[in-house]
Amino acid sequence: xxxxxxxxxxxxxxxxxxxxxxxxxxxxxxxxxxxxxxxxxxxxxxxxxxxxxxxxxxxxxxxxxxxxxxxxxxxxxxxxxxxxxxxxxxxxxxxxxxxxxxxxxxxxxxxxxxxxxxxxxxxxxxxxxxxxxxxxxxxxxxxxxxxxxxxxxxxxxxxxxxxxxxxxxxxxxxxxxxxxxxxxxxxxxxxxxxxxxxxxxxxxxxxxxxxxxxxxxxxxxxxxxxxxxxxxxxxxxxxxxxxxxxxxxxxxxxxxxxxxxxxxxxxxxxxxxxxxxxxxxxxxxxxxxxxxxxxxxxxxxxxxxxxxxxxxxxxxxxxxxxxxxxxxxxxxxxxxxxxxxxxxxxxxxxxxxxxxxxxxxxxxxxxxxxxxxxxxxxxxxxxxxxxxxxxxxxxxxxxxxxxxxxxxxxxxxxxxxxxxxxxxxxxxxxxxxxxxxxxxxxxxxxxxxxxxxxxxxxxxxxxxxxxxxxxxxxxxxxxxxxxxxxxxxxxxxxxxxxxxxxxxxxxx
Length: 508
Known about the structure:
The protein is mostly beta strands and 508 residues long.
């Protein structure tokens, strides 16, 4: 009896060992499978393609601010001094349309080119006997407009061509606040308030009706953004929460400014099939997508994040608040994700769009539009808001007046981040790749330098060498010294001299 049980146990143990070895082998094999390279561009915002880098650095490419900024500024008699892009800019029906926060109201403007804007005089809001471009306006700070009793401020507008109900073709999201609330859905961070997402619909983007208050209470504040993720077939919203990491709070709380300044702002992520029913609806339940870390400067908060799908990645435009009395500013940095859930900061502390210097209209406080960047030829146009004043609780002599407007900055296609080498030369070694096209392309700058690519097999045998790649172009074709079949698994050794590399892809 004993020997039989012992034999069975040994057999089971052996089977378990074999299974573990099999699983280990399967995992190693999966890890070594080559990454497919298709016509969808692979950007170098992260290390997805990269096995190693030598004498190169990853550098955020600062967006170029339009010289004619701001393109929209309060100029009419009915306008308050503050206009900011808590809102959206859409290219729609042959023109540009803008919805923005105008004081305590929602402003609307139109443009043929996105540069020169018209503020149509509508009959919707009469101010001092004049028609205005205000779609609706709050009665007071704590009382919403007629039909929107809890509206506090605009998030943005989205045109939904999937919507069968034409009265809801345009969807608006806004922050709801019930200022004197004592029920079970009170916001834990504003204990006498109920906060959440309000939703309105419109057939034309001008005439709006409430669809739902409190569609979700999982987000709590302004500067909330969303997108429709075609990969998921769902809306994905990235909204404000407060989730300072315990180790961050512990490390920074010894600073004298900590109690007055640091709120632990962070960005949470929720999903919906219809923009009304969300997978997280209760206060303080949404999972965090991005928050400050110990590697940030003390006082850093993630104020908001606009996410959009771009080629092979999700790009996050991160509104970073430097929440200290020393230099309180809000700037736009970058993050990247492969699934829209887990994000990595890119070029931490190096803004894509930074505040302006003395004399500028965007001196201290930047916000980002809710819409995806708009493709204009070889450029991506990013609309943003700029304000002259510092964020509270700053109240010192360098605060600035509460005035603001809207402008834009541009990024060349694919060129959010570059891998750079100087004259001493550097190289990028890729992971194994499966190039599925017949030709390999780069987005690169090497007009006063060069890039040479070596292709090797799995064991490091040299298969081919490219001719020196020179020039500055969004599409540079890789020309090989001798023809060879690219469509076998290869590793690329990309040798760079005084050059920048932004993306690669293949075509047939």
